[in-house]
Amino acid sequence: AQKVTQAQTEISVVEKEDVTLDCVYETRDTTYYLFWYKQPPSGELVFLIRRNSFDEQNEISGRYSWNFQKSTSSFNFTITASQVVDSAVYFCALNSNSGYALNFGKGTSLLVTP
Amino acid sequence: EPEVTQTPSHQVTQMGQEVILRCVPISNHLYFYWYRQILGQKVEFLVSFYNNEISEKSEIFDDQFSVERPDGSNFTLKIRSTKLEDSAMYFCASSETPPASVAFFGQGTRLTVV
To answer: What residues of B are in contact with residue A104 (Cβ under 8 Å)?
Structure first.
């Protein structure tokens, strides 16, 4: 069975602080894919990043960075110098060769205040 | 940039009525999906559809649900006899070849059953 755990339900930070959103996953498959999606208050789901299980290189995109560690089954997401527009619910998700479905975590609600 | 579009954005229906939610996937994508998100909860997989047939479905997708690709562009989700607990945001998504390909989501249809 596959499982994604986002232990942080809500995080509140002040603008310009750095914040890390945790994601821990479980899967028996050796080939799998990890994703982060953002859900702003308007409700849509916006794709942020995909990582496959064979690529543990960390990735940086502007103020966003992702730390993938197979040894701890984690795929954490850091926002540097947070901004009010980063306020949203962030979902970590997992997919693998055993099916078509994306398995989502419960999400972390991030509130960035001025 | 290509996107998945869903109509309507919000639908209110009476318990026991049939509803059809509509989606136009990204044109060169081959796989289509429906997910739902009950208010404040995680995003849950309902069904995937490929080559005019269901490729995978969850236990949520029971006999009251059906999907169809009535023409070359639309993809629909029908709920035959709505219940109060069907109230949720329904997301359509599409992708190239899973699990590696990114699933891009529409903006969602908020279904309210009264």
So the answer is: 42-44
Beta bridge partners, B68, equal B76
Using a CB-CB cut-off of 8 Å, the residues of chain A touching B102 are 35, 47, 50
CB atoms within 10 A of CB B32: 23
A5-55 confidence digits (pLDDT tens): 999 999 999 999 999 999 999 999 999 999 999 999 999 999 999 999 998
**CB nearest A33 (choices: B58, B93, B99):** B99
On whether the CB atoms of residues B40 and B103 are closer than 8 A, the answer is: no
SS3 A60: strand
Q: B49 to chain A, minimum CA–CA distance in Å?
A: 9
- B30 touches A: beta carbon within 8 Å: no
Say if residues B21 and B11 touch (Cβ distance below 8 Å).
Answer: yes
Q: pLDDT tens digit string along B2-35?
A: 799 999 999 999 999 999 999 999 999 999 999 9
CA–CA dist A95, A104 (Å, integer): 9
Distance CA(A66)–CA(A56), nearest Å, equals 10
Is A44 in contact with B107 (Cβ distance < 8 A)?
yes
**Residue A27 DSSP symbol:** -
